[in-house]
Amino acid sequence: MSTMSTSERVFIKDFRPSERFQGIFAMMNAQRGMTKTGKPYLKCLFRDKTGELPARMWSVPDSLFSRIGAEGFVWAEGETQPYQGELQLIIHTIDPIEPSAKQLQELLPTTTKSIPGMFQEVVGVLGTLQHPAAKALAQTYLDDEMLMDHFRHAPAARSMHHAYLGGLLEHTLQLLKVAEALLPLYPKLSRDVVLLGLFLHDLGKTRELSWETGFNYTDRGDLVGHIVEGAIMLHDKSQQAMAAHGVRMPAGFITVLQHIILSHHGIPEYGAAKIPSTPEAIFISILDNLDAKTTMALSAARPEIEREFDLGGNFTEKHWGLGTKLYRPDPLG
Predict the structure, then answer these.
(1) What is the C-alpha to C-alpha distance for residues 216 and 269, in angstroms, rounded to an integer?
(2) 254, 158 Cβ separation under 8 angstroms
């Protein structure tokens, strides 16, 4: 077994089979598993800015689970191991740690796309809105410099889809592009309502999540959540838009936009406060699910950073956000 150099950090994307590893990682979704012989073990995900890998620790004392918690930053050492076509980490030692600012930069993933460029594309799409009330409302949001700064840099989630700095912006822009491609096929949908609804649907995450020292929920995120937060924010912004631009909001306009925010998760089991009940709300909920699940699937099965070695497995391990393992090969490739 070869030994990794300890003089500088080796990132997850560069891990190879049957090597020693040590360093600081962001730990996600830590759970207590049980072996066939009834002994508890730790299973979790380790992440840095370059990727993530499943990790296991056998022969775990009960005190360890309470010490490290379900998520956080840890120092760990152990070895890499091929398993069913996947690379996994076998942990020998693990301890919670508070990373330095420099270490955080090595741990928090960031979009590979241009944040200023993506934001200008969003502004450009919003510039095509037609109704005066829609234009005034969009401009009121864009004029909120602190909110837009948070919008540019926030992740779209803690650990599911687009869970990296700039992820919320990337997710929103992708949805706007998909909608613009599909809207001509459904001419009875209100284009202004769909585009504005997509821009607004996840903006509550700018208050639900914090990302300065890792991806965490704020107190307001735990107590209110981004769905209700977004609907509250919309009420406030509509009042500001009418005062600043002297534009009357048509009857039902703010209500249907709030409904889009409250219903975009589709069903109560997934956090929706209401079932989508307008054509535009149904369209947006489906597009949101499409982008979220497709992005998760591609990240797991066809990551942007390809490994230099092939462990021969056709399937990923089971993806807990999708509820299935994913087939990797392109059958026509």
Answers:
(1) 22
(2) no
Query: Which residues on adjacent β-strands are paired with residue 324?
Result: 319
Give this prediction's pTM: 0.78
What are the tens digits of pLDDT across the range 276-325?
A: 999 999 999 999 999 989 988 887 788 766 655 555 678 877 776 788 88
Would you say 175 and 187 are in contact if contact means Cβ atoms under 8 Å apart? no
Q: How many CB atoms lie within 10 A of CB 52?
A: 21
Using alpha carbons, select from 6, 9, 5, 216 the residue that is nearest to residue 103: 9
Q: Report helix, strand or coil for 205.
A: helix
Give the tens place of pLDDT for each residue, 162-189: 778 899 999 999 999 999 999 999 999 9
Q: How far apart are CA 41 and CA 35, in angstroms?
A: 7
CA–CA–CA angle 326, 331, 333 (5° rounding): 115
DSSP, res 330: -
Q: Indicate the residue type of 108.
A: L
